[in-house]
C-alpha cells in the first residue's frame, strides 16, 4: 500500500470526524430540545412579537438593534405554523446555518488548494464543527456572537483567498458577502472585526480593485439596505430607538460593568484586555502576525489577517468592559482557525500540482501522522467535555422540569397566560417563559431601566439617600409598568426581592427599590395577594376577581362609580399605631366622562373625622377608566398613636377634582339614598 493511500485514508477519517462532531451536536440539541441560551431565548420572543405585528421599541422594549429581532422571525413563523415551541425550531435553524458554514468552508478550501485530499481543507471545517460543539457545551448556542461567526466566516475565508488569487462564481461570491453582512451587522462592533484585515490589505497592498469584488458588493448592499430600512420603519419605532433607547443605553449600560467585589468600582478596559481570559489569545494572535508564508498560495498566509481579526475581537471584548465569556466567542473561533492553519496543515506549501503537498519522505509522513493524531485527540477531548457537561444537567436544561419557580407558574397559569417578571437580568424570565410557553406581561422585556437609572450610585445606601429623586428613565419604566399591570393583568407578578440585582448598586434588589419608592404598595399590592417566596423572588397572584369573603353592597357614588364589593384587610380590632387596610372593587356606572373622582377613607367618631386618606381609586384617574372593567383599590389608614381607645366608624366617600370640598351623593342599588358617606364597618381601637 502506498504512502499516499495511507494519508488519504487518514484524511477520510478526518472527514468522517466532521460528520461525527456535527452528528454529536445535533444529538445534544435534540436530546435537550428546550435548552437555550438566555439571550437567545429573549430574541426568539422578539421574533414572535414581530410576527404578531408588534412594533419594536414601541409595543415591546429591548435595547439591541432590530436585526437580531428580524432574524428570529423565520423560526417564529415555522413554530407558529407547526404549533410547536419555538426553541427547538430555532436550534434546528441555527444548525442548518452551521451546515452551510461548514460545507461552504470546505468547498472554498478545496477550491483554493485544488484538492479535497489536503488535511487543511478538512481541518478548517472540523474547527468550525468543534466550535459549534463548544457553544453547545457552554450553552452559548444561538448567541449573537455565535450567529455572527457562522454567517461571517465563509466571507472572511473568501476574502483571504481572494488576496491569494482564488476565483469562484461571482453569484456565489455575492451571496457569501451578502450573508456575511447579516452576521456583521448584528452588533456594531462586529463590523470593526470584519474591517481589520481589509484595512490591513488596503494599507499594505493598495489593491483597490479587490474592494470591488462580488462578495464586497454583496456585503455593502445588505449593509446599505439595513441602514436605509430605518427610513421606512414606523416613525414611532425609529424615534423611540434613536431618541430614547440608544441614548439611555449609552448612558446607563455601563452599570452592568460594576465589580461587586469592590464597592463602587467598575471593571475597566485594561483589566479585561489583559485579564486571564484574554492572555492566551493575545499570545496566539501576536505570533500569527509574524508568521510569513513560504509560498504565494500558502495556508500560512491566512494567519496574519486572522490574527488581525483576533486582535480586533479582543479589543472589542475589552471595550465592552464586562468580561462576559460569550463576548470572547469571536476571539476563540478565530484562534481555533489559526491553530488549524499553523498546526493541522500539510508540511509543504500548496503548489500547482494537487498531490505535490502529499510528499513521500519519512519526515513528511511522520509529521502528517502526528497532525492526524492531534486531530483525533482534540476531537475526543471536545466530545468528552461536551458529554460530561450534558450529563451534569445544567440549571438551564432543567428549568422546564425541576425549577420550583417554573412549577409554581405551571400550577397557577396555563399556556399563553401573561406572567410579569421584574428583574434587571435576562434571568429568570428567559429561558423560563419561552420553555413553558407563557407570555411576558412586560412591555420592557427586562427591568434594565432600574440599573441604567442608578448607574451613578455605587451602593444602596446612596440610592436611599436620594430615594425621592426617581431618575426619568426609571419613571418612564414605572409608568409603563403601571399600564402593563392595568391592561395585561398578569396572572403572576414575580419580583427579584433579595440579593443584589444585576447591574444594580451594591445590596440593592429590584423589589427593595420598588418597595422603598412605594411602587409595590401603590400599584402591586392593591391588585395582588402574596403567594410565595422562592429563592430571591417574591411571587404575587393577581386577584382581579372579587373574593368570596368580600361584602357586596352595590352602591353607586355620584351616579358614576359603582362599588361592587369591599373587604377589610384586617380584624375590626386594632391597636394604636396600627394600619387599617381596606380593599374595594369598582367599575364605571355610566359611560366615561372627563370627570375625575377621588376617594377618601375616613375614621370617624361622633361626627368628627379623626384621620382620612385620599387618592384616585386604584391609583388610576377615573377619567382613564374603561367601561365594564373592574378596578381594585387598596387604602391604608394609619391609626394615630395618641388616639383615644374606643369604637370608630370607617366611612368611604368620593369627591371630584374640581370640587374637593364637597363629597358626592351615594345611592344603593335600589335607588335609596345613602347620604354622602358610606358606612363600611366599626373598628375597635384598643
Structure description:
There is one protein chain. The chain is α+β, with helices and mostly antiparallel strands. It is 48% helix and 14% strand. The protein has helices spanning 3-31, 38-51, 67-70, 73-82, 86-113, 119-137, 144-162, 170-184, 188-204, 214-228, 235-252, 269-273, 276-289, 303-319, 329-342, 362-392, 395-398, 404-412, 429-435, 448-453, 460-465, 472-488, 510-516, 519-524; strands at residues 418-422, 439-440, 492-496, 528-534, 537-542, 555-557, 561-568, 573-574, 579-588, 597-605, 608-615, 631-638, 646-656, 666-667, 673-675, 678-685. It has a 6-stranded antiparallel beta sheet, with no helix packed on it. A 5-stranded mixed beta sheet has the order 2-1-3-5-4, sandwiched between helices. The chain has a 5-stranded mixed beta sheet with strand order 8-16-13-10-11, with no helix packed on it. Strand 1 (418-422), helix 19 and strand 2 (439-440) form a beta-alpha-beta unit. Helix 6 (119-137) runs antiparallel to helix 15 (329-342) and helix 7 (144-162) packs antiparallel against helix 8. The radius of gyration is 32 Å and the shape is elongated. The model is unreliable at 347-359 and 393-399 (pLDDT under 50).
Q: Extract low-pLDDT stretches.
A: 347-359, 393-399
The main pleated sheet reads as: 6 strands, antiparallel
Shape: elongated
Global Rg: 32 Å
Q: Hey, roughly how much beta strand do the residues contain?
A: 5-15%
Question: What is the strand tally?
Answer: 16
Mean pLDDT over all positions:
85
Strand order of the largest sheet: 12-9-7-6-14-15
Number of helices: 24
Structural class by sheet pairing and helices: alpha+beta
Helix content: 40-55%
Distance between the termini: 105 Å
Amino acid at each position: 500500500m502506498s504512502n499516499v493511500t495511507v494519508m488519504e485514508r487518514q484524511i477520510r477519517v478526518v472527514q468522517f470526524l466532521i460528520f461525527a462532531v456535527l452528528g454529536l451536536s445535533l444529538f445534544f440539541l435534540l436530546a435537550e430540545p428546550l435548552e437555550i441560551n438566555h439571550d437567545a431565548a429573549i430574541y426568539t420572543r422578539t421574533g414572535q412579537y414581530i410576527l404578531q405585528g408588534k412594533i419594536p421599541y414601541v409595543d415591546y422594549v429591548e435595547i439591541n438593534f432590530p436585526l437580531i429581532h428580524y432574524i428570529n422571525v423565520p423560526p417564529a413563523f415555522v413554530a407558529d405554523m407547526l404549533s410547536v415551541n419555538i426553541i427547538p425550531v430555532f436550534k434546528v435553524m441555527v444548525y442548518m446555518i452551521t451546515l452551510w458554514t461548514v460545507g461552504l468552508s470546505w468547498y472554498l478550501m478545496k477550491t483554493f488548494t485544488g484538492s479535497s485530499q489536503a488535511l487543511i481543507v478538512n481541518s478548517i471545517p472540523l474547527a468550525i464543527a468543534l466550535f459549534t460543539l463548544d457553544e453547545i457545551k457552554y450553552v452559548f448556542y444561538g448567541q449573537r456572537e455565535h450567529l455572527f461567526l457562522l454567517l461571517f466566516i465563509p466571507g472572511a475565508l473568501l476574502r483571504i483567498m481572494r488576496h491569494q488569487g482564488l476565483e469562484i462564481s461571482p453569484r456565489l461570491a455575492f451571496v457569501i458577502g451578502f450573508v456575511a453582512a447579516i452576521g456583521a451587522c448584528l452588533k456594531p462592533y462586529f463590523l470593526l472585526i470584519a474591517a481589520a484585515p481589509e484595512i490591513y490589505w488596503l494599507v499594505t497592498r493598495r489593491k483597490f480593485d479587490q474592494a470591488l469584488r462580488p462578495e464586497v458588493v454583496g456585503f455593502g448592499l445588505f449593509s446599505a439596505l439595513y441602514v436605509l430600512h430605518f427610513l421606512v420603519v414606523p416613525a414611532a419605532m425609529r424615534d423611540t430607538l434613536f431618541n430614547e433607547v440608544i441614548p439611555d443605553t449609552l448612558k446607563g449600560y455601563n452599570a452592568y460593568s460594576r465589580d461587586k467585589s469592590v464597592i463602587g468600582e467598575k471593571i475597566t478596559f485594561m483589566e479585561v484586555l489583559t485579564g486571564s481570559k484574554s492572555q492566551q489569545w493575545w499570545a496566539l494572535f501576536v505570533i500569527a502576525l509574524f508568521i510569513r508564508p513560504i509560498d504565494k498560495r500558502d495556508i500560512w498566509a491566512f494567519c496574519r489577517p486572522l490574527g488581525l481579526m483576533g486582535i480586533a475581537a479582543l479589543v472589542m471584548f475589552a471595550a465592552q468592559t464586562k468580561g462576559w465569556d460569550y463576548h470572547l466567542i469571536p476571539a476563540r473561533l478565530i484562534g481555533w482557525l489559526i491553530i488549524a492553519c499553523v498546526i493541522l496543515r500539510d508540511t509543504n506549501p500548496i503548489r500547482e500540482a494537487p498531490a505535490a503537498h502529499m510528499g513521500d519522505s519519512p519526515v513528511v509522513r511522520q509529521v502528517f501522522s502526528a497532525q492526524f493524531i492531534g486531530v483525533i485527540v482534540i476531537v475526543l477531548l471536545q466530545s468528552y467535555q461536551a458529554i460530561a457537561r450534558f450529563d451534569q444537567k445544567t440549571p438551564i436544561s432543567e428549568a422546564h422540569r425541576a425549577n420550583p419557580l417554573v412549577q409554581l407558574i405551571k400550577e397557577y397559569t396555563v399556556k399563553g397566560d401573561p406572567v410579569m417578571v421584574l428583574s434587571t437580568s435576562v434571568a429568570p424570565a428567559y429561558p423560563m417563559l419561552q420553555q413553558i410557553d407563557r407570555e411576558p406581561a412586560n412591555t420592557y422585556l427586562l427591568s434594565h431601566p432600574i440599573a441604567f437609572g442608578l448607574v451613578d450610585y455605587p451602593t444602596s445606601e446612596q440610592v436611599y439617600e436620594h430615594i425621592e429623586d426617581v431618575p426619568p428613565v426609571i419613571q418612564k419604566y414605572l409608568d409603563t409598568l403601571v399600564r402593563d399591570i392595568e391592561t395585561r393583568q398578569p396572572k403572576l407578578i414575580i419580583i427579584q426581592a433579595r440579593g443584589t440585582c444585576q447591574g444594580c448598586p451594591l445590596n440593592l434588589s429590584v423589589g427593595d427599590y420598588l418597595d422603598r419608592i412605594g411602587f409595590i404598595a401603590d400599584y402591586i399590592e392593591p391588585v395582588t395577594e402574596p403567594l410565595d417566596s422562592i429563592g430571591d423572588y417574591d411571587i404575587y397572584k393577581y386577584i382581579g376577581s372579587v373574593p368570596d369573603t368580600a361584602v357586596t353592597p352595590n352602591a353607586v357614588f355620584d351616579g358614576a362609580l359603582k362599588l361592587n364589593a369591599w373587604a377589610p384587610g384586617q380584624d375590626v380590632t386594632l391597636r394604636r399605631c396600627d394600619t387599617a387596610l381596606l380593599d374595594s372593587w369598582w367599575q364605571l356606572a355610566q359611560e366615561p366622562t372627563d370627570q375625575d373622582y377621588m376617594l377618601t377613607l375616613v375614621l370617624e367618631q361622633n361626627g368628627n373625622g379623626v384621620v382620612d386618606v385620599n387618592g384616585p381609586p386604584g391609583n388610576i384617574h377615573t377619567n382613564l377608566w374603561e367601561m365594564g372593567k373592574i378596578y381594585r383599590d387598596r387604602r391604608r389608614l394609619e391609626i394615630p398613636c395618641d388616639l383615644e381607645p374606643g369604637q370608630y366608624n370607617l366611612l368611604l366617600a368620593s369627591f371630584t377634582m374640581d370640587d374637593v370640598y364637597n363629597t358626592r351623593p351615594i345611592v344603593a342599588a335600589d335607588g335609596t339614598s345613602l347620604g354622602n358617606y358610606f358606612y363600611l364597618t366599626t373598628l375597635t381601637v384598643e
